[in-house]
């Protein structure tokens, strides 16, 4: 240990890529800062590791992105929602501040941490119709998530008013073998260490009870 270690940043990026669904492109992509553009990614088969809840969005008033901390349980954990320009939007339990969040331009987002088959940890930032598909997919199959690979089986289209949109269809794609299971345990423990060394993963079923259907926008 040295004196410099007292002021060194302890933050470690939990995931290699943060993927968002791009409806027009019908694919997931992430923003590559070095290239200054979005890079399309086919995640292939991936394994669920853990999920958290957060807020993302855009403030027209501040012309700035909106973000918050990630929480494990919407009913008991406080969200601190801000803009990247430094403006505080709201702080507290989601049910108490959701109107202020939505008015500011924020959207409920599910942060899904997963492992690709080569061990790479990625993150899916799901909201809108892609989040609805994920919630429908896991509603009756959550117990299968620790032991089975998932793939994007297909892409479907929908329409709301004059707006046409696309969304991914998730499906299970086979069980892990013992070697893959060992790798998943290793990557899960590493991910948990980066996010919070003291916490244990818990079922987030309570979050699904907090989110109303009319909050899942298309």
What do you see in this structure?
With 218 residues, the chain is of the alpha+beta class. It has one domain. It has helices at residues 94-104, 128-139, 178-195, 205-210; strands at 17-22, 27-32, 37-41, 46-59, 64-68, 79-83, 88-92, 106-116, 121-126, 148-160, 163-175. It has a nine-stranded mixed β-sheet with strand order 3-2-1-9-8-4-5-6-7. Strand 10 (148-160) and strand 11 (163-175) form a beta hairpin. Residues 1-9 and 198-206 have low confidence and may be disordered.
Give a quick set of tags describing it:
single chain; alpha+beta; nine-stranded mixed beta sheet; two-stranded antiparallel sheet; 4 helices; globular; disordered N terminus
SSE blueprint and pairings:
Elements: E1 17-22, E2 27-32, E3 37-41, E4 46-59, E5 64-68, E6 79-83, E7 88-92, H1 94-104, E8 106-116, E9 121-126, H2 128-139, E10 148-160, E11 163-175, H3 178-195, H4 205-210
What is this entry, summarized?
The chain has 218 residues and is of the alpha+beta class. The chain is built from 4 helices and 11 strands, in the order βββββββαββαββαα. A hairpin with a 4-residue loop joins strand 1 and strand 2.
Strand count, sense and barrel status of the largest sheet are: 9 strands, mixed
Helix content estimate: 10-25%
Low-confidence stretches: 1-9, 198-206
**Could you tell me the number of beta strands?**
11
Counting structural domains, the number is 1
**Broad structural category:** alpha+beta
What sort of overall outline do the alpha carbons produce when their principal axes are compared? Answer: globular
Helix-strand pattern: EEEEEEEHEEHEEHH
How many H/I helices? 4
Per DSSP, what share of the residues sits in E-state strands of 2 or more residues? 35-45%
Radius of gyration: 18 Å
Overall pLDDT metric? 87
Please report the distance between the alpha carbons of the first and last residues. 51 Å
Spatial strand order of the main sheet: 3-2-1-9-8-4-5-6-7
């Amino acid at each position: 240990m040295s004196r410099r270690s007292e002021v060194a940043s302890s933050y470690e990026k939990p995931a290699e890529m943060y993927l968002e669904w791009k409806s027009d492109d019908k694919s997931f992509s992430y923003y590559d800062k070095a290239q200054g553009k979005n890079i399309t990614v086919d995640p292939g088969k991936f394994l669920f590791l853990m999920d958290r809840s957060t807020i993302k969005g855009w403030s027209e008033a501040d012309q700035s992105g909106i973000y918050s901390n990630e929480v494990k349980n919407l009913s008991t954990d406080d969200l601190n929602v801000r803009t990247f320009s430094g403006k505080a939007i709201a702080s507290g339990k989601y049910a108490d501040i959701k109107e202020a969040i939505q008015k500011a331009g924020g959207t409920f987002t599910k942060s899904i941490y997963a492992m690709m088959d080569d061990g790479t940890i990625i993150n899916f930032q799901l909201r809108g119709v892609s989040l609805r598909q994920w919630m429908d997919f896991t509603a009756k199959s959550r117990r299968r998530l620790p032991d089975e690979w998932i793939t994007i089986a297909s892409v479907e289209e929908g329409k709301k008013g004059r707006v046409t949109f696309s969304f991914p269809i998730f499906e299970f794609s086979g069980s892990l073998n013992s070697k893959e299971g060992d790798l998943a345990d290793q990557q899960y423990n590493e991910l948990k260490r980066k996010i919070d060394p003291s916490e244990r993963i818990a079922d987030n079923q309570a979050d699904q009870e907090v989110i109303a259907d009319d909050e899942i926008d298309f």
